[in-house]
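To: structure desk
From: M.T.
Subject: fold request, one chain
Message: Could you run this one when you get a chance? Sequence is below, nothing fancy, just the single chain.
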Amino acid sequence: MELSTGIYESLIYEALKKKLDALNKSQYAVNTLSIDSAEVPRLLTNYISKILSRLLTDDKLFESLEERISFINKILHFIEGEWSCDTADDLLVVQNYLLSGIISRAGKNEQQIKAYNLLRPKSGFTVSNLFTGSNHDLSLQSEINLDIQSADEIYWIVAFIKFSGVRIFKDALSHFLECPDARMHIITTSYMAASEPKALQFLKELSPEKVARPAPCQVVYLSPQ
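Reply: Done. Structure tokens follow.
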């Protein structure tokens, strides 16, 4: 890492300290800030996660998933031995798959149960993604559709609602609202009258028999003061 002038927010590690010490202090000023105690867990977690990621992606160090899992378990054993923390329940089981769902068998055949495993966004649930609208990116519409189909409850927080934006999700939302316990919550604004009444009415009419007891689709307006 080459040092350049600018704003930083970095923990100081050995290699960085050597570079800071080597700077010509007559040409460069090195500024520091006190670490907020409330931020310590986040900062240290981010720091060690980057190191672990670098190590775990090195094929020269680890040739298989089993070796990588063993490495993580050794770290947990070390933590348990060094600080007397019980990490037995946190040890990873050596296997090449992830838990992707627990589905009730009531009213479903094996084919339907397997289909549920496919109703998930291709971008996943654990990592944030930026959708740019490029032809090379995942389709935002298809990802939201899959999100709706795999949801137990829906929360939409949007600046405004347009009919052209919600009508494309009619089939997925209608199917979602057919479930007895389905609930959909929408937080939007009335700023500049950008939200269209037609769009809000469209959402309510998706399941009119549920609107009154209680509404599966609740719309909350935020008006600027």
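Reply (cont.): DSSP finds eight helices and three strands in the chain. Let me know if you need anything else for the meeting.
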